[in-house]
Amino acid sequence: MISPRIRRLVQDYELLQRILKDWPLIQITGTAGLPPELYRFTYRIRGLYVSGSGDILEREAHVLEVNLSLGYPRRAPQCRMLTPVFHPNFDDATVCIGDFWAASEGLDDLIIRIGRMIAYQEYNTKSPLNGLAAKWAAQNTNLLPVDPRSVAPPVRTGEDAMAAVAGTQSPAPSSSQPQPQPLPQSQPASAENVQPVPDDPWAQKIVIT
To answer: Is this model's pTM higher than 0.85 or not?
Structure first.
């Protein structure tokens, strides 16, 4: 008999594949486990980061890793950015999702919400992980959001979905783009065996340590 956790993992994967199909702003660029317990998502959304010289700059692509631990969905997914983000609710080790996660929360809702956070459509300066970013956001509300586009995929797909994000600088993926290939069940889900999508240039730049 399939356990409730495995059933939830299968449902999450099928739903993510369906709603993110042909959506250029959020793409699944890696999975591990069968069904997947570890994901990597690439966001084509304008966000902020701090350069080596200390300047706050924009960037157009961000990579998120999501680990669905054994306690999932009762316990929140473990989320961390693999690319730098300057935001009150992000640090080098984690993304703060404790304020809104519940077992009834869909993984798709979480992924979309993190996209809104990257775009500064959502942020919390009251209990920040990054105090400097919280101070900056409070003083520069006139500059926010950094990216005002709708992060959530529309109900429609195909050409209509592409039109909904007119103005994005990232090319829309073609229908022939390879889909993430889950690992065989015999291999554990871990950061070392995440499989990037071959044709995604940002996924190729992920460094596995």
So the answer is: no
